[in-house]
Design a protein that fits this description.
This protein is of the alpha+beta class. It has helices at 2-12, 14-25, 44-59, 117-137, 158-166, 231-244, 278-286, 294-307, 358-371, 392-405; strands at residues 63-67, 71-76, 82-88, 106-108, 111-113, 144-150, 172-175, 178-179, 183-186, 188-197, 205-212, 218-219, 222-229, 249-253, 257-263, 267-268, 321-322, 326-327, 329-338, 343-352, 375-382, 385-386, 412-414, 426-428, 431-432, 446-448. The protein has 2 domains: 2-186 and 385-448, Zn peptidases (Aminopeptidase, 3-Layer(aba) Sandwich), CATH 3.40.630.10; 189-382, Alpha-Beta Plaits (2-Layer Sandwich), CATH 3.30.70. The strands form 7 sheets. The chain has an 8-stranded antiparallel β-sheet. It has a 6-stranded mixed β-sheet with strand order 1-2-6-3-7-24, with helices on both faces. Strands 4-5-26 form a 3-stranded antiparallel β-sheet.
Length: 451
């Protein structure tokens, strides 16, 4: 049977699959704008990952094309309709809390640990070897495959947009960048910045800076602020914070003042309930400090009200849900302030249920921020993805999954945003199986070797 032959081939590839994944994960392919240039629009580390993947595919005798460093394609077949696969080679920043070096992959307890192992380098390698197995098995195919590997999925999708400017999109396809079985709907995504200029601080205590978060699409696990002033007043504030008894807040004195540190738990912005937001914890703490100037205190109070204490967006007045995709989620991913320029800036990621009007959500946010004295502007508004459960693409993939896994389950919806909404007739298919932890964007990210 062809199924047995495919399994034999894939088992024979196992060592190569692991070693190629390791070699790809070793490259810290985070967006690096300072090193961007022609042929490397997202920086040299991302370019290095693209080159490495090209080497791997070329070694397998696949035809590869480089699209100006935005993405690469692997081609198989020359007749019929084009079936697409979409994966990506860039990763999010590391963050705190790693027990191992995120770019020195290690295997422990059947798990391969490292940044990008599950999002999306491990799945990208798996899909390439699956294509190799199809080719070497002699399985008769009616259509051809274009496997597109992008370099900017985590920070804007410019890679796939660049590709579609000069190429016909595939007729349909999938992305191994989500969950099994099939994701037939994705929430709408709204990303916006809110900011306010504060006058030079004239309080008994001076707020020198706030720094928190690195990317908007991850729950920040660390946030800190520095306050300077007279030692007696600083001790008073330290005592106030200590009496609150929060294990999530730490105060460190130095020669000029104190650093207040908030500790959270990282998670993907699509499921912020799996994490603990350090930005919200820090702002809540700062709102209890009485000796800041009136303007700073009022601004922090307003920010606290807008951001709230949870992930529902209730502080902005946008809490919502629908039966298909569940609750709206709200993630303050980045917060920055420097006393020298007086600009307090917060960047926020919102995932909106499929049947909730995204533009109305934005209008509500903009109005709420304006009333609180903040200016707000969005820089990304991506409509939701929805493909009917009865669509042939969904039913075919679901049939494959249920046969292979011996299950009888239905397609799902997520809050994540994949390449699939950039191309018609695409759905996410894998790599995370039902009941398994979703480690994308988290510390100690891993993928199961067996998976």
């Amino acid at each position: 049977m062809i199924e047995n032959r495919l399994n034999e081939l894939i088992d024979g590839y196992s060592k190569d699959i692991i070693s190629d994944t390791i070699s790809l994960v070793q490259i810290p392919s985070i967006l690096d704008e300072p090193s961007a240039q022609k042929g490397a629009p997202f920086g040299q580390p991302v370019r290095a990952a693209l080159d490495r993947m090209t080497d791997i595919a070329t070694r397998m005798d696949f035809s590869c094309t480089d699209d100006d460093g935005y993405c690469m394609t692997v081609e198989y077949g020359n007749k019929g309709e084009t079936i697409g696969i979409l994966a990506h080679l860039d990763v999010v920043p590391v963050g705190e809390g790693w027990e191992t070096d995120p770019f020195v992959p290690v295997i422990n307890d059947d798990k391969l640990f490292g940044r990008g192992t599950v999002d999306d380098k491990g799945p990208a390698i798996a899909a390439l070897y699956a294509l190799k197995a199809v080719r070497e098995s002699g399985l008769p195919v009616r259509n051809r495959v274009t496997y597109i590997l992008g370099c900017n999925e985590e920070t804007g999708h410019q890679c796939i947009k660049h590709y579609l400017k000069t190429h016909e999109p595939p007729a349909c396809g999938f992305s191994p960048d989500g969950f099994f079985p099939v994701i037939h709907a994705e929430k709408g995504i709204l990303r916006f910045t809110m900011h306010k200029i504060i006058s030079p601080d004239a309080g008994a205590l001076i707020l020198d800076y706030i720094h928190a978060g690195t990317v908007v699409n991850a729950v920040p696990d660390h946030a800190e602020a520095h306050i300077s002033g007279e030692q007696g007043q600083l001790k008073l504030i330290t005592d106030i914070i200590s009496k609150q008894g929060s294990t999530a807040i730490s105060v460190k004195p130095d020669e000029t003042g104190i650093t207040i540190i908030a500790f959270g738990k990282g998670a993907h912005a699509m499921s912020p309930w799996k994490g603990e937001n350090a930005v919200q914890k820090l702002v809540e703490c700062l709102a209890t400090i009485p000796l800041l100037s009136q303007e700073v205190h009022d601004t922090i109070d307003a920010l606290h009200d807008l951001l709230g204490k949870d992930w529902t967006g209730s502080g902005m007045g946008i809490a919502a849900q629908d039966q298909l995709s569940g609750n709206l989620s709200f993630n303050p991913g980045i917060l920055d302030y420097e006393k020298n320029d007086g600009n307090i800036v917060c960047k926020i990621d919102v995932r909106c249920p499929v049947h909730v009007n995204l533009e109305f959500v934005w209008e509500t946010i903009a109005n709420r921020c304006k009333r609180a004295g903040f200016e707000a502007e969005y820089w990304q508004m991506r409509p939701p993805l929805y493909i009917s459960k009865d669509d042939p693409l969904v039913t075919d993939l679901m049939q494959i999954y249920n046969i292979m896994m011996g299950t009888n389950i239905s397609p799902i919806t997520i809050g994540g945003g994949t390449y699939c909404r950039d191309v018609r007739n695409f759905v996410s298919f894998g790599p995370v199986f039902p009941g398994e932890p979703e480690m994308a964007h988290q510390s100690n990210e891993f993928i199961s070797i067996e998976d």
